[in-house]
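Recall that a protein's primary structure is simply its ordered list of amino acids. Everything else, from secondary elements to tertiary packing, is in principle encoded there. The following example makes that idea concrete.
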Amino acid sequence: MSQHVRNLFQSVWIRLCATLAMGLVLGACATPLIQPPSVETPAGDPPPPPAAAQPSAPAFAVSAAPTETHKGIPVGFTDEGFPYRGSPDAAIVMVEYSDYECPFCARYFVQTEPALNDNFVRSDQVRVVFRDFPIPQLHPNAFAAHVAALCVAEQGSAASFWQMHDVLFQTQTVWSNLPDPAPHLVQLAEEIGVDRTRFDDCVASGAMEARIEQSIGEGRSLGITGTPSFNFVRAATADQFLMVGAQPFDQFAGMITTLAAGETPTQAQEPEQQAGDAAIPFWATADGLIPDPDRPGYNVAGDLYRGNPDAKVVVIEFSDFQCPFCRRHVIETQPTLDETFVETGLVMWVFKHFPLNIHPQAEAAGAAAECAADQLKFWAMHELLFEHVEAWSISDPSAVLRGYAEELALDLAQFDACMADGEALARVRSDFTDGAPFVQGTPAFIVLFNGEGRIIPGALPVDRFTEALDQVLAETGQ
């Protein structure tokens, strides 16, 4: 790959990171080539610098002194009825927008929340207000969990709400995988000690759905698109600053300390200044995109690719083998794109896994594709998996996946060992981690060219995708 192309990729990534990060924080869509007709959407959890939020959120005032505690911290409800923990007189209010089924929210709950409590909440410096922001497109059981927590709160005990809040995150992997989480949620509420009849009536009434929608709308008005997100409010001035993502404790501490000192948190710089070499993930660098001489079909970053590594246009595809829109793209659109752009050397096409947790067999399918790749049959396995999604979308797809390996004349002993050792699955999960800060759904295509980064989100019809790439190629002078 030429030095010109290497420099191009660095410039592209800097602009793309800035566009995506700022777009998510400010609630503006990252500029797509074409608006998609269909896309499966996960929560976005990027960690950009804090951005000033508009002062339109409720004041979260507390008129009555708290009469309960949870883990030794005062708890209660704001005048609007929102649960809080910490002193009503705290100088800083941190409004948390969360999704009980979101794994990043659970990570924050486990890794960061205890340190925040110990360092800032218990010392009366910060009061935390909890707001509901379930994302049912990605987390199908989340809405029911939020309703259950609010129906616990409806019985008047803030301490009971926070107990339910904690146990929902602690047992997330249990209830999030149930076809119907309602019985388990009832059991959790009963263990806390709520009035069962009153709880059931609350759930059945549908009253809490409106409260949740109100909370989601409030968050969106602040530019929130992913979870967890945190709106920091300086109580004395009502100045607000948004922080997005399950960031390390030091980021929270820096924000709180700055606000407590009466200072303004550092704002996002211009895109060219915001990111540097250290901010560019290896899989997006020129060095990472170089073909791996020891692993045919892979680049040095460990991703499968097709096409010309020196092409002026690179498309990085994030896909999920169990996603119906991804399948539509592979069957209806990709053959034409391959013939027109990839096989002619105009485009380098890179594949990365992005298995959504609403597709429970997608990870196993991705691992099977990786194991096939070890025997130089990734793309053949890729086609089989998308062609026969219904056949392997069963509780245990291992036998079906092994059958595909046999059909492709793979060394079955080697395939079995690969599936068993966990390394292939780790590659699939690593791709998901790579894409999580930037990808909003599947399929998603990051297009890099001419020092720009654009996104094509969704399964576009072949004529519209072709039009989009023709436009890109024209801008590169081809």
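Residues 213 and 359 are 25 Å apart (CA to CA). The first helix runs from residue 3 to 26.
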